[in-house]
Amino acid sequence: MPNKNSDSARKRSYAFLGPAGTFTELAVKQINQAKGASLISVNHVSEAIDLVVSGKVSRAVVPVENSIEGGVSATLDALAGTELIRIYGEYLVPVTFNLVAKPGTKLSNVKTVATHPVAYAQSRKWLLEKLPGHVHLPTTSTASAAKDLLESSYADAAIAAPSIINHFKLTTLAKNIGENKQAQTRFIQIGLAGDLSKPTGADKTSVIVELPTDRPGSLLEMLEQFATRGVNLTRIESRPIGDRLGRYRFNIDAEGHVLDESVGEALAGLHRFSPKVSFLGSYPRADKQQTAPSGNNSNGQYGEAKKWLDAIRKAR
Amino acid sequence: MPNKNSDSARKRSYAFLGPAGTFTELAVKQINQAKGASLISVNHVSEAIDLVVSGKVSRAVVPVENSIEGGVSATLDALAGTELIRIYGEYLVPVTFNLVAKPGTKLSNVKTVATHPVAYAQSRKWLLEKLPGHVHLPTTSTASAAKDLLESSYADAAIAAPSIINHFKLTTLAKNIGENKQAQTRFIQIGLAGDLSKPTGADKTSVIVELPTDRPGSLLEMLEQFATRGVNLTRIESRPIGDRLGRYRFNIDAEGHVLDESVGEALAGLHRFSPKVSFLGSYPRADKQQTAPSGNNSNGQYGEAKKWLDAIRKAR
Amino acid sequence: MPNKNSDSARKRSYAFLGPAGTFTELAVKQINQAKGASLISVNHVSEAIDLVVSGKVSRAVVPVENSIEGGVSATLDALAGTELIRIYGEYLVPVTFNLVAKPGTKLSNVKTVATHPVAYAQSRKWLLEKLPGHVHLPTTSTASAAKDLLESSYADAAIAAPSIINHFKLTTLAKNIGENKQAQTRFIQIGLAGDLSKPTGADKTSVIVELPTDRPGSLLEMLEQFATRGVNLTRIESRPIGDRLGRYRFNIDAEGHVLDESVGEALAGLHRFSPKVSFLGSYPRADKQQTAPSGNNSNGQYGEAKKWLDAIRKAR
Amino acid sequence: MPNKNSDSARKRSYAFLGPAGTFTELAVKQINQAKGASLISVNHVSEAIDLVVSGKVSRAVVPVENSIEGGVSATLDALAGTELIRIYGEYLVPVTFNLVAKPGTKLSNVKTVATHPVAYAQSRKWLLEKLPGHVHLPTTSTASAAKDLLESSYADAAIAAPSIINHFKLTTLAKNIGENKQAQTRFIQIGLAGDLSKPTGADKTSVIVELPTDRPGSLLEMLEQFATRGVNLTRIESRPIGDRLGRYRFNIDAEGHVLDESVGEALAGLHRFSPKVSFLGSYPRADKQQTAPSGNNSNGQYGEAKKWLDAIRKAR
């Protein structure tokens, strides 16, 4: 069956946190436009972003938040470091961990387990019970832990996504060993700032806002910029600005699209309030939950209020 | 000395709460454009407003607030009853009460004292001490109490403004008998809705806002429409909507001019929030205190935020 | 039928805004404990309060709010003027106005109409239609207007409560001439500060709060003292403090009883926040609507939070 | 010079993120009572906490926040996982990174660099410039990276604290290679829940608060629990609750001590508001900045408000 996106896809390229077999690759597979595109595996979020900024890839897919480990600092900080990129989509990937090893390995012989620290933290309970004397060898990704089993590693087993055995000649020793069976990771698709995504009625808008430091209560004031316009937040996460302790910026996901009047006015309010605010993008929600502003905060109500105000102001 | 406003003033006419000698007349005398204009004395605020609405007078001057007695209900309710009028100015008049009588009257012979209930309340302490057995005869104004002494009244004395003796052949029996020596009344100049007053940098904006009744906390929400835009209120006064107990509208005076971005956005916010909001006018403050929005809420900051938002939105 | 309250009632006395036939007397009749008590008619709210403060009467019944005219300034200011009194109950009286006259009077002959200014304002529309050339004679109460018809007045008719004809030999010329047919007045029962009314689960708490004047946004802060504890307001009304324009105190009715933890904490918060706060009383609501705090703000939740905090604090 | 804490210190033991030479050990050295105590090196925050909970050590010292990398998830999550522990102190350690190697190693020969991912991120810019083709080998601490150089590692150099050369026979190849020269890490001292630290007038109080999920705006409501009592926050950091995306708890540091009335009332308010709130401790600030509540929120003002309320409530 010919892919209708195939022509444009051929010209498209997607950087992702590799190697093949990572959870990030599973996120890329959810993207329709990525079918048939070339996939570029990188080792670090900042590499992925650099490739986007320099125009060497069309898009990058990176993890932004995990339901257990929280925000991915590398991604949040990379987003804060440039004004040139935008978020164009988000994707949810269930996080399931299997213990894999070279064919012939027995569970009872496993002494050293390689994996990414996050995967290790989630599997630690199972490991303490089943492999009480094990040693952890940290790696930069779950897939590289698996790959290294066949190459350079002195580890006996690796913790990785179930699909890893499609990529490497490995055996599964134990399935679903993570503590939380509903764990998910949220990934975002990043590209150069360009066309706005079209509003779908089920959108999210992401911004980074620095708090003014000269007065207490400024977080409350910032949240009121949203509340007064009836804009709900789905996530708020603090990150250090980095110059000294006690100074924070906030990564915020809000319901709605920047073309919605309520969201636009809230963002303009943030711009006045904050020493620095970065617009990261408006894009369709992964869960497709409707979030178009309604009631007092609908575009219709904004339009009527504007008409009313304009009539008053024009009386001169 | 020829009055430079005289030509246009000749065509102008001002209704005021009369008769001659009332505090309202003192307010009219503060208005430059009223010099040489014809002054129409009326008995009731609603008469004054009716004359404006019907075009029979150019302007009306009515009391809106007294530092002791509070808001003047008749004025507040008249303002709420029509969308056709606007406030064009405010004037402060010190309120001093004298006891006056027909020439020859002695204080010791005064048994019945005529005056408006508000003047009576403010003079009651003095009267109880000096004229313990007196009877109060309520009248519709202090000036009519004085005027009636010479005509129809069976009162022995009247309480009125000091200047009343310029209008009627009366003697002053006691000066400054009001309890509060700093008492002031605030008057407003009302005209048909027309040209906006030009911003002066020291302006007030008045609105009437009905609260939605379907949820608690709506007054707080309404105030946040101002606070989020940094607009300060100088007065807020509740009045019953009138259909049943427990439903209120609020008369609000805010600092700034409707042409200020912060004030305009707050008003548009009220329009979305409230089942009914009436714009009463933007006009120069009597105390000339500067109130142009500044800092995060200056027109400059609004302009920059708008430019920033427009650039984001145009990216499509 | 013997009244079970008769013995104690005999010793009880109630001051009310008289004379007999006023709406205030109708409020007194709603009070069980007032049955058989002696009723003392007074002309002014401050007289009624003075009688309570001096111990000459047990209680006073005065109007506090009208669904059309709003707050009764004399009552609100009298409440603010002393710390010695409390509100012990509230009563709603429908306000219906009839036009009455001496027997034999014809409507077509009525030229002068006596009544209280509030009653006049509510009947003005009817009068302008039916008696276009009439003159208004203001009186201190509707009942005194009626009474004076038989005594001193030169008025031809009076506007008063329908029940006025039970007290004076008068005829009804027109019924229910008020503009708003659902008009109500709320009355309160005032006594010396003494025992708290027992909580009924359907209570109101009244306070007077002065706003600090040194900063904008203080009204918002004051309302947050209630909102943070989940206490709803049923009424908020500003009154001038009286020393100069721009300084206000607020008369507030809140849902719940001062013995409720949420209400108590809100009041203590006001005490810290405000330069002056007066507790006027907790008393059963006239409409018997349940208002006991619930959910997060129930007394049970407050108790558990206190227990939790005490355990933390005792760890030393 | 004999240490006056030596006797009790002998019985004391401190677990810290080791091995010797980590930044955590530098934090331990700031603690007076730790002088002469036995220091137990552990590999993981959760091990340190487990030793405290089981009573095997008196205290543990762990990093909680870095000025560049942000909150230390392992610590934040360990604190959320038990009610048995408290924070007893905080310590600031400047974070400076040196590149170290076995004696004889030349910078030009370094191909593989071992260090903790956080140290790597902060040194990456320097490494890309000076060692463009290097490979990163992640380790569980900077000190273990250094230690491993002499033992098991195939790395050529390690990034660690300057003081690392006091512990291992290593040479410094480059000094202060971190990107941010003012970087700091904040450490906390953890013990079993027991005696409260005495208020010093310069204290912090730490709590973890889960947000109710059933309504938008709950973060704003939570912050108002602090704001209404005038309690300032110095840090707020979200962490996932872990069961699914979109559910957060907040780690909060507030100014003041739980024995301060304002802080206590705010905490009790959180207890009512939140499905789960954990008190982590009140302890002296590392920066010794005075934070005792003052003005309207001082203990004196709280005391007066309570006295006033009690007097009202006792009237029965």
UniProtKB/TrEMBL annotation, chains A, B, C, D:
* Residues covered by region (Disordered): 286-309
- Biased-composition ranges for Polar residues? 289-301
- Give the Pfam families listed for this entry: ACT (PF01842), PDT (PF00800)
| Pathways per UniProt | Amino-acid biosynthesis; L-phenylalanine biosynthesis; phenylpyruvate from prephenate: step 1/1
Is the keyword Glycosyltransferase assigned to this protein? no
Catalysis performed (reactions): prephenate + H(+) = 3-phenylpyruvate + CO2 + H2O
Q: Which UniProt keywords apply?
A: Amino-acid biosynthesis, Aromatic amino acid biosynthesis, Lyase, Phenylalanine biosynthesis
Task: Give the EC number(s) under which this enzyme is classified.
Answer: 4.2.1.51
One GO MF annotation is: prephenate dehydratase activity
Residues annotated as domain ACT: 207-284
Look up keyword Amino-acid biosynthesis and say if it applies: yes
What is this protein called in UniProt? Answer: prephenate dehydratase
- Please name the source species: freshwater metagenome
